Automatic annotation (TrEMBL):
It comes from Nocardioides albertanoniae. This is Putative NBD/HSP70 family sugar kinase. Keywords: Kinase, Transferase. Pfam families: ROK. Coiled coil: none annotated. One of its GO terms (molecular function) is kinase activity. Belongs to the ROK (NagC/XylR) family. InterPro entries: ATPase_NBD (IPR043129), ROK (IPR000600). The keyword Kinase applies.
């Protein structure tokens, strides 16, 4: 009998759960369709935990970490503005409610940050940027051996960097944000398909030589490269890991982004010296979001501030 960590990747369509043993081995996996709304999310997540517990051979679940989209208060264990999950009201106490249902301590984290922790564990480097190419565009920062959330929890929101003052209005209220060019939603809009994944269809068509597909692919890759360049110039990470739904494309995606980065550096010896293309990795198979969630630990009590004596 041993202690097991459970990680939950809570998404709008499914919840992916894994159980990891003390030696780092994934002992079990489970996927359950997500039911929207406060009760639905709690019930769906608890069902994943119950299925994982049933598959373990007497092992005890020591902790549960959950990565979830939205604005997460890691200390309070609450989430708000998780629109795709039907949690768009006041801060929802998911950690408390799920913990009571699952019979273990639950710690919440933003889903991109959880995936960043997972990418760190898989890549085994202490200085990386995780760029999530999902419905939106967001980055997680793991710098100097620690996750960087930012003062307001907005570190890595590179998708809302305005790059085109004449562009369309973004959902955030700004105009011409990078997310409108370099995200899964932007790609699906530019290359709609009725069968399969838009990114897979686009890259397949581009590989076959379709000029329109090549143009859409290259525009998308150029946008992603711009995000990587901005992040690299801001924090200069050892590695840039690409994840999210579009990352299922694998090596062709990495190659397209690498070509765009190389082209952007052709007129700049400074950019060329940074060798950004060589830092790229694509995570297409490892469940980094669930792995990272399993590695989340409860927040420590804040230390007492130090001040000078009056």
């Amino acid at each position: 009998m041993s202690d097991v960590r459970v990680g939950l990747d809570i998404g709008g369509t499914k919840i992916h759960g894994i159980a990891i043993g003390p030696d780092g081995v994934v002992l079990a996996e489970e996927r359950v369709a997500t039911t929207r709304g406060p009760e639905g999310v709690v019930t769906s997540a608890a069902a994943v935990v119950a299925a994982l517990r049933a598959s373990l051979d007497g092992d005890v679940i020591r902790s549960i970490g959950a990565g979830i989209p939205g604005i997460v208060d890691t200390r309070a264990g609450t989430v708000k503005h998780a629109v795709n999950l039907g949690l768009d009201g006041a801060a929802f106490p998911l950690a408390e409610l799920l913990g009571a249902r699952a019979g273990a301590v639950v710690t919440l984290e933003n889903d991109t940050n959880a995936a960043t922790l997972g990418a760190h564990a898989v890549e085994d480097v202490d200085d990386l940027v995780y760029l999530s190419l999902g419905t939106g565009l967001a980055a997680g920062l793991y710098l100097g051996g620690a996750l960087r959330r930012g003062f307001h929890g907005a570190a890595g929101e590179v998708g809302h960097l305005p790059v085109d003052p004449e562009g369309a209005v973004c959902g955030c209220g700004q105009r011409g944000c990078l997310e409108l060019v370099a995200s899964g939603a932007a790609l699906a809009s530019a290359w709609p398909t009725t069968t399969g994944h838009p990114a897979a269809a686009l890259f397949a068509a581009a590989t076959e030589g379709d000029p329109a597909a090549i143009a859409v692919r290259d525009r998308f890759a150029t946008g992603v490269a711009a995000a990587i360049r901005a992040l690299a110039l801001a924090v200069d990470p050892e590695r840039v890991v690409i994840g999210g739904g579009v990352a299922a494309i694998g090596e062709p995606l990495r190659e397209a982004i690498a070509v765009a980065l190389t082209e952007q550096a052709e007129t700049s010896p400074f950019l060329a010296s940074l060798e950004l293309a060589s830092r790229l990795r694509v995570v297409s198979s490892a469940p980094v979001a669930a792995i990272g969630a399993a590695l989340i630990t409860p927040q420590r009590t804040p230390r007492t501030p130090i001040r000078m004596k009056d």
